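Observation: inputs received (chain + iron/sulfur cluster).
Thought: call the complex predictor directly.
Action: predict_structure
Action Input:
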Amino acid sequence: MNADQPLIIFYNAQCAKRGFQRLPAAILQVASFIEDVYPYEIIDGNLAQDTDYAALIIDRIRQAGVRYLAFSVMPGPQLASTVADLRTIKAACPEVTTIFGGYFPLNHYETCARDADVDYVIAGPAETAFRDLIACLERGDQPVDVAGIAWCEEEILASSSSLQPVRQNEKQEYINPNELPRYPYHRLDVEQYVVPTFLGSRTLSHHSSFGCPFLCNFCAVVSLANGRWKGESGARLGELAEHMVQQWQINALEFHDNNFFTSESRVKAFCEELLTRKLSLQWWGEGRPDTLLKYADETWELMSRTGLKMIFFGAESGSDDTLKQMNKGGTQTTSGVMELVTKMRRFNIIPELSFIVGNPPEPDRDMRQTIHFIRRIKRANPDTEIIIYRYDPVPIGGEMYDEVTRLGFTFPTTLEEWVDERWRKIQRRTSADVPWLTSKEQAYLADFQTVLNAQFPTSTMRHIKPGSWQFHLLKAVSGLRYHSGWYRFPLELKWLQKKFAYQRPEISGF
Ligand code: B12
Ligand code: SF4
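Observation:
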């Protein structure tokens, strides 16, 4: 094996808009387990987006004799870019072994494993799974004992059935984040990931914990963690933050954890580290309203003093019945969310609330209740950011999933179907073609969002600043509609938003 010739390529196909790329933490984490074991390189399709990445990878495979091509795959835009490139690469280099990991294969491992161009799938945590899979294949063995792997065995593949059985081993146990090696940042040009955001001019990201202790029944994280959570210590995080400041002069840090604020003592320790190390950073993370309501005022004060600018919350619904149905853990309520946004005003930290609307079994009622709730929230704290998603099922069962299944909903069974125009629209939530919400109901929701976004332009946008003339114009023109509750056909607002290249937070993702 020649250390200069990569044996493995990790490929992060395009998923972010130009300029919105983030460090591919999943790949760095998996790669950290093969550092100094196997030669590899990372190719990120989110950088230099005009590049023909399939052609580039084909060249690398041919020139360097790459044997394994490992894709990180999220649903949505990344799946589409992945499948397009996978087809081109496999047609040109059928000998390369392809491996899929990430959230899409986690939830749809059978669809991936049955695809003729996908050789192996890793469902769930993959640090040791990936390393052991490569070791096994290099020995010429089948990964029968390697945790986390799913695949169609050759004799099964040869059968004529389109629903070939897939062999799946037990998932890999997750690794305590405090025992993970530091990410091999030197494998990337990190400077290209230092981006301007509303937090600061030089923002980097980090993922500091595994999983989430809750079991909400619409959430893809449950399939990964099944109610388990473990975080890196405050001290380790302080050390990393200092390294990022010294190495890349960052002034802002995004935490991409599913539930960064699970442990108050860890968050406090991190804030104290920032103070001790004299680091001046603006930071952001995701949390649960009920967890943060329990935080002491002195922790809020400390978080605010150390640069916490905004917290993202899954507020989910304006209906307590829906929250129960979602299995939000029993202690999250609409009154709690209201109390929280009011409290956060005092500490000058912006709440960013995400809602899922159109939940079965009464999607229309659910949507209207949530819209009403959002209006109340805006009265209590107008700075609150609102992000609205339409309900979309995740295959982990539960009352809502059962209801959409009853209505005739089924997931696609091939990668081609997943990336066809109909499904792409459904995943972008731009299609009305779903059985649980009519096109009229979806149009009403889209119109409300247009009016809301004009009346309260998002502060996460990079180019329309609060107080700018565009900001005031959007507010003035939308005033009558918002205050009278007349949302239908807001053509003038759509025109203005298009002119100003208004970026809705749910579409830009961060
Ligand atoms: C950062 C991020 C992004 C970045 C992209 C990052 C990148 N790869 O370049 C951006 C902002 C572009 C993005 C976009 C989207 N994202 Co995103 N994203 C995340 C986030 C917050 C962190 C991902 C991460 O780095 N995790 C840390 C790593 C260590 O964990 P991991 O991903 O689970 O990886 C482990 C395993 O999955 C596996 N693995 C992962 N990849 C690979 C690859 C190989 C080869 C192997 C072997 C293993 C493997 O091994 C890893 C280690 O054990 C996650 C939530 C989360 N906290 O994970 C959402 C998340 C993955 N995103 C999600 C979604 C839906 C999207 C969008 C499609 C929609 C949206 N509105 O957010 C958009 C697309 C936007 C668009 N352009 O239209 C969902 C997926 C849900 C689902 N149903 O599967 C998540 C889970 C958020 C959520 N809770 O809903 N995202
Ligand atoms: S609290 Fe958030 S991350 Fe955790 S399971 Fe529920 S929705 Fe998913």
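Thought: report the result.
Final Answer: The domain at 8-168 is CATH 3.40.50.280 (Rossmann fold). The first strand starts at residue 8 and ends at 12.
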